[in-house]
Amino acid sequence: MSAKPEWADKDYYADLGVSSSASADEIKRTYRKLARENHPDTNPDNPEALERFKRAAEAYDTLSDPDERKEYDNFRKMVRSGGFGRSGGAGFPGGFRSTQEDFDLSDIFGGRASGQGDSGGFGDIFGGVFNRGGGGGRAARPSRGADVETEVTLEFREAAKGTTIPLQLSGEAPCTTCHGSGSKSGKTTTCSNCGGTGFASENRGAFAFSSPCTVCGGSGRAVTDPCDDCKGQGTVHRTRSITVRIPAGVIDGQKVRLAGQGEAGPNGTPSGDLFVKVKVKPDKVFTREGDDLHVTVPVSFAELTLGDTINVPTLDAPVRVKVPAGTPDGRTLRVRGRGVPKRGGTAGDLMVTVQVKVPTNLDAAASSALRTYAQAEKESGFNPRAGWAGNA
C-alpha cells in the first residue's frame, strides 16, 4: 500500500488529542470517548460534532493499525525533514535535482543507499512508507478484495430495535476448488519476475521507478499450476447469501460496516469490507429525535380537565400514562426508558404529547349536559381568553 494522499494535510494525533508517543490503549480509550461525545445519534443536527466524529474515526482507522501507524509516522518524519533535503528540481517533494551525479533515485525507490546497511537512510523510510522492497528484500503488502456497498430499506421499528436481514451479494468469492489459493496443489512459489518483492523496477533515463509487479499482482507469489475453475486467480464470480445483523438505533442514511464480507481478494489475500447503507421508512405513529421517541395521543377535554390514565403505544407493549388534572392541550409528558434502545442496555425516553379531540356528533343528552357545563363555566368566572392579546 502506498502512502495515502490525505496524509499530506492531516494530523491524526491532533485529531484524537494525543501525543505521537501515545500507546495503543491510550489511542483506543481516547477514540471511544470522542466517538461517544460526538456520535450523530447524540448530536442530531450538529455539523461540528459530526465533523469531529468523522475526523476521529479516520484518525483511529490509521493509528489503530500498527503497520499503517508506522507508515504514517515515517511519512510525517520525511515531511518534517523537508522531503529529501534537496532543492532545485520540480515535481517532487522537497525538490529533486534531475542529474545522476547528485544521487541515484533507484537507491530511494528500489535499492539500498550506497554504503548503508539493511536499515536507515532514504531507502528505509520509503520502504516503510511505500512498501517498496529496499535492501531488506521486504515483500509488498498483499492486496485485498474490493469493498462492496449495498442498500437496505427497514421499517421504522426494525431500525429502532435492530433486526437481522438476509442479503444476496454477487461478486468475487473464494474459489471452492482450490480454497482461494489459485493453485491446484494449494502451493505458490516466489515470483521470478519481482523476486518476491511485489514490485518491478523500470529505468527511465536518470530515474528508476517501481510499480506493482504485473505477473503476481504485487503479492510476491506466483502460481505454477493454475486451478482450472478460477484460472489461477483464487476467486470466482458467484452469488452468495449472508445474514446481516443491523444494530438497534440505526438512523436513516447510516452505514453499517461488516469487516471481511466484501469481495474476496486474489490468491487467498484478505476480503474487502461490506458497507450496508440503511434507509428507514417513516412511521405512522412515532417520530424520532436522537434516542427519544415522540408520539401524539388524542385525548378528550374531560380527560385533560379531570385527569385520567391512558394507554400509550411503545415499540413493545403499550404503557399506562397518568394525565394530571388540568393538563393543557399540547403538553408533552415524558416516559423514561421507553424510547430507542442504546448500547449498554439503556434506552431513550418516550415523549407523549396530548392533543384534544373535539367530538363532532353529540346526542341530545350529551349536548344538554355540555350546555349545562358551559353555563356553569361562565358563572364561575372562567374566561379562556383572559389576558390574551386579542382581548386587550
Helix content: 10-25%
Show unreliable segments.
84-141
Structural class: alpha+beta
CATH superfamily grouping of the largest domain: DnaJ domain
What would you say the CATH architecture of the largest domain is? Orthogonal Bundle
**How would you name the oligomeric state of the polypeptide chains in this document?**
single chain
The CATH C-level class name of the largest domain: Mainly Alpha
Shape: elongated
**Rg value:** 33 Å
Widest beta sheet: strand line-up: 10-11-15-14
Total count of domains: 3
Helix tally? 9
Biggest sheet details = 4 strands, mixed
GO molecular function, one term: zinc ion binding
Binding site for Zn(2+) 2: 191, 194, 213, 216
Family: Belongs to the DnaJ family.
Zinc finger (CR-type): 162-239
Tell me what you see in this structure.
With 392 residues, the chain is of the alpha+beta class. It folds into three domains: 5-130, Helix Hairpins (Orthogonal Bundle); 144-188 and 226-282, Sandwich (HSP40/DNAj peptide-binding domain); 286-385, Urease metallochaperone UreE, N-terminal domain (HSP40/DNAj peptide-binding domain, Sandwich), CATH 2.60.260.20. It is 24% helix and 23% strand. The protein contains nine helices and 15 strands. The protein has helices at residues 12-16, 24-38, 47-63, 66-80, 105-109, 121-130, 156-161, 301-306, 364-379, and strands at 148-154, 163-174, 189-190, 199-204, 207-212, 221-222, 235-246, 255-258, 274-280, 286-289, 292-299, 308-312, 319-323, 332-335, 350-356. Helix 2 runs antiparallel to helix 3 (47-63). It starts with 11 loop residues before the first helix and ends in a 13-residue tail after the last helix.
